[in-house]
Design goal:
Elements: H1 2-28, H2 34-41, H3 47-57, H4 63-75, H5 89-124, H6 129-143, H7 146-160, H8 177-211, H9 214-221, H10 226-256, H11 258-263, H12 269-278, H13 282-310
């Protein structure tokens, strides 16, 4: 086990190194640079001053040399400054990371629990009334665009009923837990409705296949009760392929909830990375994308470890 984890950590470090080179190279090839934007907002700046600034920030150097200098600084703990915020990168990313963590963990946990319950109920009687209703809910969640779903929830719960705030991360002057929960309710509900449908379909398909296997029929023949057959024998084995999908979705939620964060004015990782790319904030965008890559790699590692727990026959080597 320890050797497997150590090997995966080494592989993750190699992937992060390659990703940092690719992202740094792609951003360096983008038209314009931060100084071009600065010059556009300060038309009185002379070419001589621009040349001095390019030399100061190292923008006149080859791309490989710039990457090597950034890597050496990053390995020493210096991730650089954000151009748009004029503060160290971590001072911008850590609050965004915390906001995304709250949104992501809450929506992911609720989605997984609902998907397991609905998927199992749907698989027990395929073609029944419950299966049809759950299937309708699942397909609606998969088909409805996120921005449209967010707008509907805002109109219903914020505009008409006035139960919840339409946007923001907290009321000014109020930093209580209940106030934060109220502001997270609608974005979490949006992501739950969007993700539960896909998770439910995967759980249903895996459960239907597992319930027809020989070991399930053997368990029933030995006198195991329906609850034990479903929850202990069938569900545990059906979760093996579902865990892979959920692990990939976990990494996507970290940086891909851009639409939801934009609709509800949540300054999370997705919105922060998107704004950094648009404003050519190289250090902030690069570090944010590497954080997203790291979370995806850790989610995949957790999925591999879960395989061994779900099925003792799986060996981690």
């Amino acid at each position: 086990m320890l050797a497997f984890v150590a090997r995966r950590v080494a592989q993750a470090a190699l992937v992060l190194l390659i990703m940092s080179f690719v992202i740094h190279g792609l951003m360096g090839l983008m038209p314009g640079d931060p100084l071009d934007i600065m010059m556009g907002s300060a038309p009185g700046m002379t070419p001589e001053v621009m040349a001095q600034l390019r030399a100061l920030y190292g923008l006149d150097q080859p791309l490989l040399l710039r990457y090597w200098r950034w890597l050496a600084a990053a390995l020493s703990g210096d991730l650089g400054y954000s151009r748009t915020h004029a503060v160290p990168v971590l001072q911008v990313l850590l609050p965004a990371l915390w906001q995304t963590a709250k949104l992501m963990l809450a929506s992911f946990a609720i989605s997984v629990i609902l998907a397991l319950v609905l998927g199992v109920v749907s698989a027990l009687r395929p073609g029944g009334i419950a299966d049809s209703l759950i299937g309708l809910f699942a397909f609606a969640g998969i088909s409805v665009p996120v921005f449209w779903l967010a707008l509907i929830l805002i109109l219903v719960f914020a505009v008409e009923l006035r139960w919840l705030p339409a946007s923001g991360m907290g009321t000014v002057g109020d930093h209580g837990v209940l106030d934060q929960i109220r502001h997270l309710a609608l974005p979490v509900l949006t992501l739950v409705l969007y993700n539960t449908g896909a998770f439910t379909r995967y759980v249903r398909a895996a459960m239907i296949e597992t319930l027809h296997m020989d070991f399930v029929r053997t368990a029933r023949a030995k006198g195991a009760g329906p609850a034990r057959v479903v929850l202990v024998h069938a569900l545990r084995n059906a979760l093996i392929p579902v865990v892979t999908v959920m692990a990939l979705s976990f990494g996507t939620l970290f940086s891909g909830a851009l639409v939801t964060e934009t609709m509800f004015a949540q300054m999370g990782m997705g919105k922060t990375i998107y704004d950094a790319i648009l404003s050519n904030d190289y250090n902030l965008a690069l570090t944010g994308l590497l954080f997203a890559t790291l979370v995806t790699l850790l989610a995949n590692l957790a999925a591999d470890l879960a395989y061994g727990w779900l099925d003792p026959r799986v060996t981690l080597r």
